[in-house]
Specification:
Strand order of the largest sheet: 3-2-1-4-18-17-16
Distance between the termini: 34 Å
Strand content: 15-25%
CATH topology of the largest domain: FAD/NAD(P)-binding domain
CATH class of the largest domain: Alpha Beta
Number of helices: 17
Number of domains: 2
Number of strands: 18
Radius of gyration: 23 Å
Mean pLDDT: 95
């Protein structure tokens, strides 16, 4: 093959951009060269960074700067507002490209099988995150009538949900928060947020910095019960073997022994409380029932039979994300991933699906931090290039870069481009500058397309 290798990447979040970067840094980028098209169903790129990171975390959103440097490379084109498989099916992708990499991530809430979970006032954290991050495909309002709220889970998403619920709208206004979200949070009635974990401090999945940030707000009092500070041999081993676990435990210990202050909103971090039922009346949430647990010596817990009913009017489950099933690819409903071997997609019979690969959360599940997807991308790209070198890629039928453009136009797809992102970015920054903010995020899909020059 004397022409550049043509690669389609479906999903322009961090995982997809890291895969593109790995391709550009490979030997193949020099000879015969690579040509990469990223397809994204949102009008704007950056996936989880734009629609999954809380607006008051600009440090994490700064990753966009690094991703932009990759997308600026001339070997890469961006096609936004393109849906798989509605606008481009798998057969189409294989017609135009030598290989396809899916990096579609995970944006849905993992299900939680618990009595009462379907009551009005019981929500998935991912849905709430999509709302406050201005996702164009979710409702513009959110019910915020509850004065006392429960959050199930002890990971960073649970912290984000608790913090956004406990902060005032005025604190969030300097961020990129959209006007409809600011207006909604201005009417938020929550004054108590209770975060529940079924195991102990050493098993919490918080990142140390994100945990400490919870206490930085002048309106949030973080409270930890001293009785919840407990470790067994397994927990002590986790602290010794993992510096981050030890830092989290130290922070929680410090909060447990200090005097409770008088900041107006309170976030309670509860450990050894396993949620067993969402309590309801007249179809609405009126409480949460938990069972007290105890350590068993290994870092795991067992139930004690002691239950507590908590007076809350809303419950948010932050128990993990779940990927959408991708048509024409096998899917493991338990892990929420596409079965694969080092990134090579496996067909139902266990064979490798020709010229088809995965990376990121659709490959390994929604675990780890954003930076961990770099290793995924490197592994997947290495397999793709090995297959190319071995002659295992059949090759595109229509490799002309303009063929896919003609296809999208024939389909009537109003797609955005990388140049269009710069237009939208400039518009959002101008909106922010008018209010003394870095940016104000545009929410409506039609408005995004308009300001992207689609």
């Amino acid at each position: 093959m004397t022409r550049p290798i043509r690669i389609a990447i479906v999903g322009a979040g961090p995982a997809g951009v890291y895969a593109a970067d790995a391709l550009l840094k490979s030997d193949a980028a020099r000879e015969p060269g690579v040509s990469i098209d990223l397809f994204e169903r949102m009008p704007a790129p950056f996936g989880l960074i734009r629609y999954g990171v809380a607006p008051d975390h600009p440090r994490i959103k700064g990753i966009i700067t690094a991703l932009q440097r990759v997308l600026d490379k001339p070997q890469i084109r961006l096609f936004g507002n393109v849906d798989y498989p509605g606008d481009l099916a798998l057969d189409d992708l294989h017609r135009f490209y030598d290989a396809v990499v899916f990096s579609t991530g995970a944006m849905a809430d993992r299900a939680l099988d618990m009595p009462g979970i379907g009551l009005e006032g019981s929500y998935g954290a991912a849905d709430f995150v999509s709302w406050y991050d201005g996702h164009p495909d979710v409702p513009r309002t959110w019910p915020l009538e509850a004065t006392r709220v429960a959050v199930l889970g002890v990971g960073n998403v649970a912290l984000d949900v608790a913090r956004i619920l406990a902060k005032t709208a005025a604190e969030l206004l300097p961020t990129e928060i959209p006007p409809n979200v600011h207006a909604g949070l201005a009417g938020n009635k929550a004054v108590e947020v209770h975060v529940f974990g079924r195991r102990g401090p050493a098993q919490a999945k918080f990142s140390p910095m994100e945990l400490r940030e919870l206490d930085h707000s002048p309106t949030i009092e973080v409270i930890v019960d001293p009785e919840d500070i407990e470790y067994d041999e397994g927990s002590a081993a986790e602290r010794r073997g993992n510096k981050q676990v030890d830092m989290v435990a130290n922070t929680l210990e410090g909060w447990a022994i200090r005097d409770v202050g008088d900041r107006p909103h309170r976030v309670y971090l509860h450990f050894f409380e396993s949620p067993v039922e969402v309590l309801g009346a007249d179809g609405r949430v009126v409480g949460l029932r938990t069972e007290r647990t105890e350590l068993d010596g290994t870092g795991n817990v067992r139930g004690t039979g002691k239950v507590t009913d908590w007076d809350v009017q809303a419950v948010y489950r932050a128990v993990g994300y779940y990927s959408d099933e991708l048509p024409k690819l096998a899917f493991d409903p338990v892990s929420g991933t596409v079965p694969n071997q080092a990134g090579r997609v496996l067909a139902a019979d266990g064979s490798h699906q020709t010229a088809t690969y995965v990376t990121g959360w659709i490959k390994r599940g929604p675990v780890g931090l954003i930076g961990h997807t770099k290793g995924d991308a490197n592994e997947t790209v290495a397999c793709l290039l090995d297959d190319h070198a071995a002659g295992a890629l059949p090759g595109a039928v229509e490799p002309d870069p303009e063929a896919v453009v003609a296809h999208l136009r024939d389909q009537g797809v109003r797609f955005t481009t990388w140049a269009g992102w710069h237009l939208l970015d400039a518009h959002e920054r101008a909106l922010g500058a008018a209010e003394g903010r870095e940016r104000v995020k545009v929410v409506e899909r039609g408005d995004m397309l308009h300001h992207s020059g689609a």
